[in-house]
Amino acid sequence: MTDPGDHLERVARRWPPRRGRGPVRTGRVVALVAAAAIVFVLGIALGEALQDNPSPGKSRTFVRTFAPLPPASVPRTVTVTVTSP
After folding, report:
1. Fewest CB within a 10 Å sphere: which of 11, 20, 34, 50?
2. How many CB atoms lie within 10 A of CB 58?
3. How many helices (H) and strands (E) does the chain have?
4. What are 3-52's pLDDT values in tens digits?
5. Alpha carbon of 25 to those of 20, 28, 29: distances in Å?
6. How far apart are CA 12 and CA 38, in angstroms?
7. What is the pTM of this model?
8. Could you give the angle at the alpha carbon of 79 between the alpha carbons of 75 and 80, nearest 5°?
9. Cα 8 vs. chain centroid, distance in angstroms?
10. Domain ranges in the chain?
């Protein structure tokens, strides 16, 4: 019968040792979280914009009554007569 420890050593030697999590992976995680936050905020903004608009098919009628303007004063007419020499 083989020793189970021998098997574990052989399996462990197949794969290279894992490297620590470097700044590249941390940067990717931060960028991914930032992108998700931006998409979330844009989704909320779009939802609010769609909710604020009236539904299509509903008509709105605005009735406004305008008061007439006061009559303008009549300008004074002047007649000019010119004689030719």
Report:
1. 20
2. 6
3. 2, 0
4. 666 666 766 666 666 666 566 688 889 999 999 999 999 999 998 888 87
5. 10, 5, 6
6. 42
7. 0.40
8. 130
9. 54
10. 22-51
Label residue 72 left, alpha or beta by phi (over 0 means left) and psi (-120 to 50 means alpha). Answer: beta
| pLDDT of the residue at 52 | 76
What is the distance between the alpha carbons of residues 36 and 23, in angstroms, rounded to a whole number? 20
Which residues touch 60 (CB under 8 Å, ≥6 apart)?
54
Secondary structure percentages of the chain, helix, strand, coil, to 5: 50, 0, 50
Alpha-helical (H) ranges within 15-63 are 23-52
Tokens of 40: 């979330």
